[in-house]
Write a structure and sequence with these properties.
324 residues; mainly beta; 8% helix; globular; disordered N terminus
Length: 324
């Protein structure tokens, strides 16, 4: 059965074992070879030290205004100026649950906390280039997490100096995101994969002027772990706009067509894609990053080509962006 790359990172940090998708063969007694014939253990490869890079593809989001709201109407858009700097904290969460019949196992990752300074590098024609450089890393204990916090904090500390850069449009449309670290350790690639899978995108805004009570629908097709294609539709509402601060709430619905993942014997048929979540946004005029809290869960069923092995998955991704 196809496994998501994230599980490798969880296992490496000391997480629990996944649910078995097929019976295990009976244990065999260990065989001791004569002393002179014992195999020589190979030396582990040297730890990587050079730069490492990961990318998140551009996201295409379609926004449709449902209601312009009441009262005075203004355009809700990013108005950051080149050279503007902003302190930002990212808190990222991930949970994976697998169920096979009556058996289930849940992998919970402690909250990853990255703090840094974001800078608007360029502003031209309503598009903004930005870079966020991480200058502090931490982790917070999460209910259900089995990973030792000291080991997890050590792994996350390898993200010090991480640069997250890309472009964003005035209405929140994001281009390709590049994440890069100049010097990596043994844990960096897996820690970076966790960030890539949980990093939130900007909320999408309508281009038309809106007032209090305005409603709009944002539709996005994306891939979870670069594999599972899902459609996310978020219904937003502008709760208030006072003293240059916009307060927005949204409800997300997840759907997806039946599809296949993997190759050869690892190919899985995926069906029953569903899920949903919520989002809250507080955005100040002139700022690049909005404060943004969201949580989305995606559920689906995966089976092998014969249909004899079936696993139910629930993937929950949460994020909290605190912009100052």
């Amino acid at each position: 059965m196809t496994r998501f790359a994230l599980l490798l990172a969880i296992a490496a940090c000391g997480g629990g074992k996944p649910v078995a998708t097929s019976p295990l063969p009976p244990d065999k007694p260990a065989q001791t070879l004569p002393e002179e014939k014992k195999p020589v253990e190979p030396k582990p490869p040297p730890a990587p030290t050079g730069p490492i890079e990961a990318k998140i593809p551009a996201i295409t989001t379609k926004v449709k205004l449902v209601s312009a709201g009441k009262g005075k109407k203004e355009a809700l858009k990013i108005l950051a100026k080149a050279g503007n700097k902003q302190a930002v904290e990212l808190a990222l969460d991930f949970t994976l649950k697998q169920s096979v019949g009556a058996q289930s196992a849940e992998e919970v990752v402690p909250t990853i906390v990255l703090t840094g300074d974001a800078e608007t590098k360029a502003a031209d024609g309503g598009n903004f280039e930005y870079a966020l450089v991480v200058n502090k890393t931490d982790a917070r204990d999460t209910a259900g997490a089995k990973i030792p916090m000291d080991k997890f904090r050590a792994a996350i500390s390898s993200l010090m100096g991480l640069s997250i850069g890309g472009s964003v449009g005035a209405n929140g449309a994001t281009g390709e995101v590049t994440m890069k670290i100049e010097k990596q350790t043994e844990a960096t690639s897996q820690a970076l994969e966790l960030v890539r899978l949980t990093l939130p995108a900007w909320p999408a805004f309508p281009t038309e002027p809106v007032g209090a009570g305005a409603k709009w629908k944002a539709t996005t097709t994306t891939r979870i772990a670069n594999r599972l294609e899902v459609d996310q539709v978020t219904d937003y509402e502008l709760v208030s706009h006072k003293n240059g601060t916009w307060t927005i709430k949204g409800k997300t619905t997840v759907t997806g067509k039946d599809q296949e993942m993997g190759e050869g014997n690892d190919k899985a048929k995926v069906s029953k894609i569903a899920g949903g979540g919520t989002t809250e946004v507080t955005f100040a005029d002139g700022a690049l990053y909005p404060s943004h809290k969201s949580s989305v869960q995606t559920t689906f069923t995966a089976s092998d080509p014969t249909g004899q092995q079936t696993v139910e998955f629930a993937i929950k991704v949460g994020s909290a962006v605190t912009a100052k």
